[in-house]
Design brief:
Elements lengths: L1 H23 L2 H6 L15 H15 L2 E7 L4 H12 L1 H10 E7 L7 H6 L3 H5 L3 E5 L5 E6 L4 E2 L2 E2 L1 H12 L1
Parallel strand pairs: 1-2
Antiparallel strand pairs: 1-3, 3-4, 5-6
């Protein structure tokens, strides 16, 4: 009987955490596309304010908008979104033609607190990855959670394409 109670207690204590973890990170998804095999586009050493200032000048010169993808190399969905966008020729073409794309790091070593605060701390509201669309002058014009863009263990071509086309105008 003691063994049964111990097993039941372990199950009750661990099951909720496993359920939350599997929904957040996607245990089955990690198996199908391990994060260690995906490019790591976030740089914890970046001085994001300076990088964004350079992007704004470039965006003005090239008449493009800016997409900041907030997240980190610790976030499998952040890595997947980057790989998805860069790996789909049609979506990558829309991105390259109309936007400058920057991976705004959020990690324990560098939370880029000041930058995220400037945009209303969207990661706290939407989680990661979160997309921030800026006009060519650096003004925030849209915040987008990527969760509605998900399809299975990846993203929807139609939804991501529609989002990029909408803000390319």
């Amino acid at each position: 009987m003691k063994t049964f109670i111990r097993l039941a207690l372990v199950f009750v204590l661990l099951f909720p955490y496993r359920a939350v973890f599997s929904q957040t990170v996607g245990l089955d998804d990690i198996k199908s596309q391990p994060s260690q095999h995906l490019p790591k586009p976030y740089n914890e050493q970046d001085r994001a304010e300076e990088k964004i200032a350079v992007l704004i000048k470039k965006a003005q010169k090239e008449n493009k908008k800016i997409i900041l993808q907030g997240g980190g190399n610790w976030c499998v969905w952040c890595l997947r979104f980057n790989a998805f966008v860069r790996g789909n020729a049609e979506i990558n073409s829309i991105l390259e033609k109309n936007f400058l794309y920057y991976h705004l790091n959020y990690s324990p070593k560098n939370k880029n607190k000041k930058v995220f605060e400037k945009y209303g701390n969207p990661g706290e509201r939407y989680g990661y990855p979160v997309l921030l669309v800026l006009d060519k002058n650096g003004k925030l014009i849209h915040i987008q959670s990527t969760q509605p863009l998900e399809e299975g263990n990846t993203y929807s071509v139609q939804k991501v394409k529609a989002l990029f086309e909408q803000w390319a105008k």
